[in-house]
Specification:
mainly alpha; 89% helix; coiled coil
């Protein structure tokens, strides 16, 4: 009798532990997916910021050229 009861308890604990391990694994996988998505979003943001800086720089270069053409002199470059 005690042997069957202990076998049942061991089986129940085994099932519970397996269930908890499965849930923890699923949570870990979801966490990794979220981290990868966040990294991708950060990379996209950095690329967009880089493109924006390039665009702003080109606008500033055009303004400088226009200013130089109007005044007929070259302004110092600090960049």
């Amino acid at each position: 009798m005690a042997s069957k009861e202990s076998e049942r308890l061991v089986s129940w604990f085994d099932d519970v532990l397996r269930s908890v391990a499965d849930r923890l694994h699923k949570i870990d996988v979801e966490k990794k997916k979220s981290e990868m998505e966040l990294d991708k979003t950060k990379l996209e943001r950095d690329e967009a910021n880089f493109e924006l800086k390039k665009y702003k720089n080109s606008i500033n270069q055009e303004r400088l050229k226009t200013r130089q053409a109007k005044t007929g002199r070259i302004a110092p470059c600090f960049g």
